[in-house]
Amino acid sequence: MHFNLLTLFPEMFPASLGQSLSGKALSKNTWSYETINIRDFGLGTHKSVDDTPFGGGAGMVMRPDIIENALLSIPKQKQGRKIYMSPRGTPLSQELVKELSTEESLTILCGRYEGVDQRVLDAHEFEEISIGDYVLSGGEPAALIVMDACIRLLQGVMGNSATPDEESFSNGLLEYPHYTKPAIWNNLDVPKVLTSGHHANIKAWQQEQSEEITKHRRPDLWKIYKK
Ligand code: ADE
Predict the structure, then answer these.
(1) Which of 61, 71, 125, 142 has the fewest other C-beta atoms within 10 Å?
(2) What CATH number does the domain containing 178 carry?
(3) How many CB atoms lie within 10 A of CB 224?
């Protein structure tokens, strides 16, 4: 899987994705990335990429001509699905991550300032994706999150530790709690059923825990699950 990253801060990549399992997968070429510095397409001696918004208001908006030139520097056949990271976007979900992780390449536009001129997003059919209901200072950390979630689903990245069917969200529920050694820690036991060796009872307990946790923490998910 290949990621093209349109950014003003190319040095923000690969960040944490260069470490641990995703880092190993990067050296094995399971995934790759390329940064395109939007600044290289800026205008004038200051390599300006933004301007004041029509209609007034605070902040600066990234110019459509600059973004387009940066985008067009990526060969069309290497662009793949185009994504703009934005708090106004479709919320990222595990379902969407699964879908994106099957793509050969993604082009992710990371905005700064107040945002990007809408016309370039429309003209090039960028899909807007949000990582949650809060505002970051730029799209780069959001892009890293999309990448991380996709990369761990790629063949061979997680090895034996991947149990996708039991993960949070994969069945519409949050995951049950986990325990390991020591069996007694600070006078605290682990739930008896887990040391019983009774597989069916363990499964039933885990299911019940998943349901309880989801009901309390995520009534929105619970409502959908119960349908
Ligand atoms: N850029 C700024 N905030 C963001 C968010 N919540 N999701 C995606 N991109 C963003």
Answers:
(1) 125
(2) 1.10.1270.20
(3) 11
d(CA 129, ligand 1 centre) in Å:
8
The residue whose C-alpha atom lies closest to atom 6 belonging to ligand 1 is 87
Q: Which of 86, 117, 151 is a domain's end point?
A: 151
Segment 11-40 mean pLDDT? 98
How many Å lie between the centroid of ligand 1 and the Cα of residue 139? 6
Q: Would you say residue 164 has pLDDT above 80? A: no
**3-state class of 109 per DSSP?**
strand
b/e per residue, 73-95, with b = 16+ CB within 10 A? ebeeeebbebbbbbbebeebeee
Structure confidence by residue, pLDDT tens digits, 125-161: 999 999 999 999 999 999 999 999 999 999 999 987 6
Give the residue from 151, 178, 198 where a domain finishes. 151
CA Rg, the chain, in Å?
Answer: 22
Residue 75 and residue 36 in contact, taking contact as beta carbons nearer than 8 Å: no
Put simply, whether the predicted model's pTM sits higher than 0.85 gets the answer yes
